[in-house]
Amino acid sequence: MVAQQLPATPRASRARHILGYWRHPVAQAVLKAFLTVFVTTTITFFLIRLMPGNPIDIKIDELTKDGLMTYQEARAQAASLFSIDLDKPVLEQYVSFIGNLAHGNLGYSFVSQGTPVTAIVLAVLPWTLFSVGTGLLLSFSVGVFLGLFAAYNRNTRADHILSLGGSIISAVPNYFIALLIVIVLGVELRWVPITQMRGATSSGIQPGFTFSFIGDVLFHAILPVSVYFLASVGHWILGMKSATINALEEDYVSAARARGLSDGRIMTAYVGRNAVLPLVTQLAITAGLAIGGSIIIESYFVYQGVGLRLQAAVTQRDYPVMQGILLMVTLSVVILNLAADLLYSRLDPRIGRAGGATGT
Amino acid sequence: MTPILSVRDLSIDYRTRRGPVHAVRDVSFDIEKGETVAIIGESGSGKTTLAVSFIRLSPRSARITKGQILYTNDRETVDIQTLPDDELRQYRWSECAMVFQAALNSFNPVINIWEQFADTARAHGMKDSAKIHARAQELLDLVHLDPDRILKAYPHELSGGMKQRVLIALSLLLEPQLIILDEPTTALDILTQRSIIDLLGQLRKKLGFSLIFISHDLSIAAELADRMITMYAGTIVERASVTDLFYRPRHPYSVGLLRAVPRVSGAMGSVASIPGSPPDLIRLPSGCTYVPRCPLAIAACAEREPDLVPVDTPNHEARCIRWKTVAEQVGTAEVAVAEKIATA
Predict the structure, then answer these.
(1) At how many degrees (to 10) do helices B252-259 and B323-343 cross?
(2) Structural domains counted in chain B
(3) CB–CB of A260 and B108 under 8 A?
């Protein structure tokens, strides 16, 4: 306080100027996001190593099984195969892991020898982000539209059907929906060719900007996307309906009517825009949950995304791959949250707008 | 000359589980061009219900059971109740603008003031943004605000008094003949109230619109109004010029309202509240609705509800069979009271 009252020297004022950038809401949000990723990475690093059994033990078991090697030899051979020395204290391992990470190096897979973790993660992550993203954006747009519709047609038959349907479907867990699709539509009724739809693409198809490739990608993504859609659409319908009903009661809506604005303009810019605000924040949270939930969904449909690959890595105790996937998932969720925050401050001028007409 | 707004025998009910609430009963009055009428009365007397019916914006549970609202402009006379939706939309704001009681929440929080001006103008067929902008600047200038700063601002960046001024400017956008102000100064501090009232006085003189001013604050109403209407339990109990209502009130309720006004010079004890509370509007008493609170009530008052009858001064009516007794009592004490209010 005292320092601020003193006449500012040029250097001091420049220092404060730079500090001022760190106080900017966007800078703060980025800083928080960075911290979140760091803390999560640290926790997962130690948690993974607390799991019973490690890849060397599993390899030693394999090598000593037929009695051709002594335990010592097997151990030496197993250790030489892996780039990380698991005898080192965990803290030392952690330091070298973070050091590598700072250089953008996630290490190599234990099981698929010589394959960089980055390549593995980059091969599966886009599929998960694509399917989860498509499912959520679809359910958000459809749910918001239906919720608005239900609120405008309150207490009509359409509203009752949407609200009841919304509460029922939002009470069903996503893995149960996936299970129902596989058993009922795939196995019993045979309406859906679930075996053909396995994987992220059909084998042999050339990636490229062609209709057949895009069509194939969509064909394989239909089932996971429908599950993400169905599991969250009810939530958006109910949320948007109640937010819209509240917004309709607002004074500025009656005031807009008194000004002779058209119903369409009032519905979009006055009611809808205000009602959708709280849902935007929830979108980021839901995205995080859905990416986490993709582990089970992808294994039901054998969809080659992050979830399926993570499951394999866990059974093989492939530490670097697990670590890499978890880091990427964390990063995606954090970036999504950050994007939602920034979007929110764009949508609602009351949030995070430094300065303005009052000039404070 | 035909009045621009003519309300005839208007009755409005609200449907509730207990039965219909008779919020407005048999209200009739006219508003001439350029005239300011103040409607006064305590909360729940039906003032706002009446006002929103003039732009057909009553809540869904409200129903007009009787009567007509006729609006006249240069070309024609229309019945507000039977106006087709698109014509109603044009009528709102371009003919009759209403500034709500909750003026401070009358702006959409997520779009800036300029867009709210533009929305309003475009809804009424003004397409040229440059023209709208020039008009908005001119109006904001008229209400003593800095146009460039205000138009860029979002509602939360403005103070209560600024919002009220912006709203007044916005109400003038389409040059309506009639402006309804519902408690325009209630949420403001006393100095801001003062400046808003002065502003309204200037604008009225300059632009010549008619004004319906709804208030429970008699001293503010007195400054702006030409005529006053006192409402009680959903109906008009007295109708008079401002001078008559202040110096020669003829209904005990108007007298009660005058006595309830605090004055700078008066001692604490000189402010008298009206004992009791307004009647249940679902089960109205058979006689005069003011009987339980009236110091002058006699047996005859409870028999049937009195009509609005002319009293001793011209263009002055009161719904009281004992207005002569009121006149005798008022002759002494109330004139002094009224003088103090008028000079306050």
Answers:
(1) 30
(2) 2
(3) no
